[in-house]
Design goal:
Elements lengths: L2 E2 L5 E2 L3 H12 L1 H10 L2 H11 L8 H8 L14 H5 L16 E3 L4 E7 L5 E4 L2 E4 H5 L2 H5 L5 E7 L6 E3 L4 E3 L3 E3 L16 H4 L2 E8 L4 E7 L7 E3 L4 E3 L4 E5 L4 E7 L4 E3 L1 H8 L3 E4 L4 E5 L1
Parallel strand pairs: 1-18
Antiparallel strand pairs: 1-2, 3-19, 4-7, 4-18, 5-6, 7-16, 8-15, 9-11, 9-14, 10-11, 11-12, 12-16, 13-15, 17-19
């Protein structure tokens, strides 16, 4: 998968991750192994290990191999790998675009944008999905026909906390149980990733962008999606939750006639490229 920054420059990352995923998804033995590791008990064991002190031994090498700039994060000693993975960034390193008519990214990510067509079918990197399958709620899915689906894909080097893209009134979280597949595009060749993964979503009655669905999707060896709030009033840029260890995805659905996505992001998506985006950054404006 090709990534580009907001200036259109090519960004090359993730080669080692792609090699290991190619083994799991594209070889016979790898697919046998995959049947084991995507199961929740295996992910639970991996999550348990990532909470142990011994897992902290991986941190130094992970930072080096993933080229993470730790000067952006809180300066403290981490108790475990997952404590490191869910680290908090210094607020000044992720300023929130507070303009009321600006729609912000909920997270650090690689972003793709898709139209939700009238027949409620959309394609993501070789896999075909319906909004109804994603939500398991036909009535709710129909409300977003003609709107926009934004896929915010987090890789292991990203900041794994996410925020609300606008202020408003949030309904309670809806949890959908599944199995844990990776969110890397190589998985789309064989699995309907967003349909099969464990996920959790909420409906946000936003102040400036009508109703928004915000969904968190678990991935391979993600032990937990940790959302902080039930039904309540929320503010734009307020932290919504975080992912434990692993690559993950946030999917946002916006209704028709509400959001104008920035041209550079649309252009990259039309060319099959993901756009590298930061938490709190403007990605579009109110129509």
């Amino acid at each position: 998968m090709e990534w580009r920054d907001r200036k259109g420059n090519f960004v090359s990352k993730g080669d080692e991750e792609d090699k290991s995923l190619h083994f799991l998804y594209e070889t016979g033995f790898g697919r046998l192994l995959l049947k084991l590791i995507i199961r929740k008990p295996v992910s639970a064991v991996a999550g348990w290990f990532m909470q142990r002190r011994v897992s902290a031994l991986w941190i130094k090498g992970f930072i080096k191999n993933s080229h993470i700039d730790m000067s952006e994060y809180e300066n403290r000693k981490f108790r475990s790998f997952n404590d490191f993975f869910t680290r908090k960034i210094r607020p000044e390193c992720r300023p929130i675009d507070a303009a009321p008519d600006h729609f912000i990214s909920p997270c650090d990510c690689k972003l793709s944008v898709f139209e939700i067509r009238s027949d409620s079918v959309f394609r993501i990197k070789g896999g075909t999905y319906t909004v109804e399958q994603l939500l398991r709620d036909r009535e709710l899915a129909d409300r977003f026909t003609g709107g926009t689906l934004l896929i915010f894909r987090l890789t292991v080097d990203d900041y794994h906390r996410y925020c609300y893209p606008d202020s408003g009134i949030k309904e309670d979280n809806v949890h959908i149980q599944g199995v844990y597949h990776t969110v890397n595009p190589i998985a789309y060749k064989r699995y309907a990733v967003l349909k099969e993964n464990t996920r959790e979503y909420t409906l946000l009655h936003s102040d400036h962008f009508d109703d928004i669905i915000m969904m968190e999707v678990g991935a391979t060896l993600v032990g937990r999606i940790s959302n902080l709030h039930g039904a309540c009033e929320v503010k734009k840029g307020r932290e919504k939750g975080h992912f434990d260890f692993g690559g993950s995805t946030v999917a946002v659905l916006v209704r028709s006639g509400v959001l104008k996505v920035d041209e550079d992001i649309l252009r990259n998506s039309e060319n099959g490229c993901e756009t590298v985006i930061k938490y709190g950054e403007r990605i579009g404006t109110r129509m």
